[in-house]
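Comment on the following before class.
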Amino acid sequence: MGEATDQQGAISHFIESETRDLAGVYRGLADNFLNVSPEFGRFLYLCARACRATRIVEFGSSMGISAIYMAAALRDMSGGRLIGTDLEPAKIARARANLAAAGLDDLVEFRVGDARETLKAGIGGDIDMVMLDGAFTLYLPILKLLEPHLKCGAVIIGENAFAEGAGYLDYVRDPQNGYLSLPLPFNPGRGNELTVRTK
């Protein structure tokens, strides 16, 4: 009980910090990988293959580890496009280098800055898959920004999709909003959520 309470307190504190100074919080994490676990990476690869993704959007690419798994799925299905985003220019520079080292950079476009602005510039078509792994308080605004481009059956994966995170879980778990959603059992405590667009 105490450990769960401590974790909830840490999440609430982090979300309050994001709300006060989003850019400052993530500038302070510029040297941290903030990467997905290998198990979660394999799950991303499987999701991309399962929905036969040709266009994927990632909110919060950090240094590109999750992008490698998703871009590998695109490569193994004969191509596609991954649009990745991050606030921090240094992280995107590392992500580009990591994707190049993996031989996958031709499949990925990274956009630097606030995704609420960088994704407004256009996606280039319908979206098959979305990975949300950036600022917790922006999951719902980013999803709503992308919503007009989501295919029926599009897969949305939220890592760190916490109940405290500004209404995202309430929104995707309400079928009237056009989604079916459930928490994922692996990496407990990380707030992993799988969602499918139903309209």
